[in-house]
Amino acid sequence: MRVTLWSSHYKVVDMNAGAGIQQDNNASPGVDAEQISCLRNEMLRFASLQLRDKHLAEDVVHEAIAAALKSTGFNTRASLKTWVFAILRNKIIDVIRERSRHPVEEFLEEDLGDLDEAFDDHDHWRRDHKPADWGHPEAVLANEQFWVIFEACLTHLPQNTARVFMMREHLGLEIREICQELTISESNCWAIMSRARMRLRLCLEENFLE
Amino acid sequence: MMNCKQATRLMSHGQDRQLTLPERMRLKFHLLICNGCSHYNKHLNIIHQAMKRISDR
Fold this sequence. Notes:
The complex is a heterodimer.
Chain A: E1 3-5, E2 10-13, E3 21-23, H1 33-51, H2 54-70, H3 77-100, H4 137-141, H5 144-155, H6 159-169, H7 175-182, H8 186-208
Antiparallel strand pairs in A: 1-2, 2-3
Helix pairs in contact in A: 1-2, 1-3, 2-3, 5-8, 6-8
Chain B: H1 4-16, H2 21-33, H3 35-56
């Protein structure tokens, strides 16, 4: 059984068992262990989707909760969530910055795959690649199966493509900011975003409509 | 005359920045005559909405 000290208020006993969060007597008023445990799962999901590295995601979530509990910037359940997610977001951006200082490969190289095959010699849709009708958008978004496939398709985006896409769509950074963070040109960034959406759409169409 | 490849690129740009008036007009005309791109545009909006809901969870 592993015992990890999270902060002066909480400790996790046997993280693999899931629910083993205990609260010390001097915890902040209005914050309970169940609430932290519930938030931790949401935060892990958020960080994993963004960083695509389970262990790294656990580390940043751990740090974010510890930092949040050291401060007194919240006093209700809602503000605790806002507070820890703001800290988590900043920690994720720090990790991305650190990664971008050590680029492992050229950004566009990984994603020059089969996307151009959708178009003919005149750059119009080939008949067998033409986007299909998915039905009403609200009905699609209400479909549970869509969400399962959507998350799977997100996970299968090429790593650097996903990094740019998630910085834009998940962290809400502007294209200009992403270019600066990752030291890539703006035209490259636009191209990556376009390809990310095209690849994601294709993955959804191939799997959701079946 | 805009082709489908150019239209898909412009639709993606439209998710991240304000398109210029000429860009909007050219894209609007293309979407009127191209069924595939019209679906593509709806799909990009669905993806954007899905990402928004994930972020708001």
